[in-house]
Design a protein that fits this description.
With 202 residues, this protein is α+β, with helices and mostly antiparallel strands. The chain is 41% helix and 36% strand.
Length: 202
C-alpha cells in the first residue's frame, strides 16, 4: 500500500516541527491512540486501537525516526502487531516547507505492508481506512496547532456520525466483493455485526 498526501497547516514551520515531535500532541491527534512512550533515542512504543473493515484490534508497535533534518524532514519507520488481526509495517517520509510566515506545507509518502486478517479483507478497505485515519489525524493536528478546542470537539462529534455511515457502506462493498470473487465470506458476515465507528490510524 502506498499513500501520498499534502496538507497546509496554520502555523510556522518550526512550530509544526516541534508539534510533530511532541508525544502528548501526537497521542491526542492519532485516532485510537492510547499511549506513546519513549524507547531510546528518536524511538517510541505506541499502543492504539484500530478498526479496519470487519477487523478490530488493539495494536502494539514501535516507530523510529530516521534521516532527521530538522525542521525540514524525517522518515518514520514503523511496525505493529495486532494479535489475530495481523500486523502492519512500513515507513513514511515526511517533509515540511514554509508557506509564508505563518503556514506550513506538510507532505508525506507512506509505504506499508499488512498481514493476517488485515491482508484478507482487501486493499480497497485497507487503503480507505488508512486515508480516513490520516485525514482525521491532520484535522485534529491542525485544530490543536490553531488552538481551537471547540472546533476539535465538534470535529470529534461529526466523525462519530460520519464513520458509522462509512462503515456500513464499507460493509456492503465487502459483501459485494466477496460475492464477485466467489469467496465464502462467512467470517466477514459474522464480523459485520460487530462493526462500530472507526476508532483509528496506521
Amino acid at each position: 500500500m502506498e499513500l501520498s498526501e499534502t496538507h497546509t497547516l496554520p502555523v510556522a514551520q518550526q512550530q509544526t516541527w516541534d508539534a510533530l515531535n511532541d508525544t502528548e500532541i501526537l497521542r491526542g491527534c492519532i485516532p485510537g491512540c492510547e499511549s506513546i512512550e519513549p524507547d531510546g533515542e528518536n524511538a517510541y512504543l505506541v499502543t492504539l486501537s484500530a478498526a479496519v473493515g470487519p477487523v478490530k484490534a488493539r495494536f502494539k508497535g514501535r516507530m523510529q525516526l530516521t534521516d532527521i533534518d530538522a525542521p525540514n524532514t524525517y522518515t518514520i519507520v514503523f511496525e505493529g502487531q495486532g494479535g489475530a488481526a495481523g500486523f502492519a509495517k512500513g515507513n513514511a517520509q515526511v517533509t515540511l516547507e514554509a508557506d509564508g510566515d505563518a503556514a506550513t506545507k506538510l507532505a508525506y509518502t507512506a509505504h506499508a505492508q499488512v498481514g493476517g486478517k488485515l491482508a484478507q479483507i482487501g486493499s480497497r478497505l485497507v487503503d480507505g481506512a488508512a486515508r480516513k485515519i490520516a485525514g482525521e489525524f491532520f484535522k485534529r493536528f491542525g485544530t490543536q496547532l490553531s488552538g481551537d478546542n471547540n472546533a476539535d470537539e465538534a470535529a470529534d462529534g461529526d466523525a462519530s456520525v460520519d464513520t458509522d455511515a462509512e462503515a456500513a457502506s464499507a460493509s456492503e462493498q465487502t459483501e459485494s466483493n466477496e460475492a464477485a470473487d466467489g469467496e465464502s465470506g462467512g467470517e466477514a458476515k459474522k464480523g459485520k455485526k460487530s462493526w462500530t465507528a472507526w476508532i483509528s490510524k496506521f
